[in-house]
Amino acid sequence: MPIIKKGFTLVELLIVITLIGLLAAFGTQTYLKSQQRSRDGRRQADLEAIRSALEIYRYDQSAYPATLVSLVPDYISAIAVDPQNPTRLYPYSTTGLTYILCAGLEATTTAVAGCDSCGTGITCSYKLTNP
């Protein structure tokens, strides 16, 4: 009577481990990209909220504020900060009649003209100006 051994061969195990590794690598990349898109969406929404507060302020005061802090608490509850680095504020500059508000998006590396520094090693890639 022949002896039958049950189990997997080394080749079968290597193929399964390789497939699991490939799926894990693909899943990690997809997860990281979705996190970047989520933070970029938050940055854009934050700048739109600030834009709204700036326009209401201009309507009331006939000029844009010198700093974003002037908007708190009458026009906005708090000045939004970058979701990835809470110590980084969004760059804002004004002439009183116009303004520029910028953010550095992670998914886009193309710089936009007219923005101040968005932070060390960060390219300003999203800009809002007065309508």
Lay out the secondary structure.
Blueprint: H1 10-61, E1 92-94, E2 99-103, E3 126-129
Antiparallel strand pairs: 1-2, 2-3
User: Kindly state the mean pLDDT as a whole number?
Assistant: 92
Topology order in helix (H) and strand (E) letters: HEEE
Can you tell me the residue ranges where pLDDT is under 50 for at least 5 consecutive residues?
none
Radius of gyration: 25 Å
Strand coverage percent: 5-15%
| DSSP summary: helix tally | 1
The strand count comes to 3
**Which sequence of strands runs across the widest sheet?**
1-2-3
Please state the structural category. mainly alpha
What percentage of residues falls in helices of 4 or more residues? 25-40%
Distance between the terminal alpha carbons, to the nearest Å? 89 Å
Shape: rod-shaped
| Main beta sheet | 3 strands, antiparallel
Structural features, described:
It is a single chain. The protein is rod-shaped and about 100 Å long. The protein contains one helix and three strands. The protein is 40% helix and 9% strand. A three-stranded antiparallel β-sheet has the order 1-2-3, covered by helices on one side. It starts with 9 loop residues before the first helix and ends with a strand. The chain has one helix at residues 10-61, and strands at residues 92-94, 99-103, 126-129.
Name its key features.
three-stranded antiparallel beta sheet; mainly alpha; 131 residues; 1 helix
Quick summary of this structure?
This protein has 131 residues and is mostly helical. The protein is 40% helix and 9% strand. It has a three-stranded antiparallel β-sheet, with helices on one face.
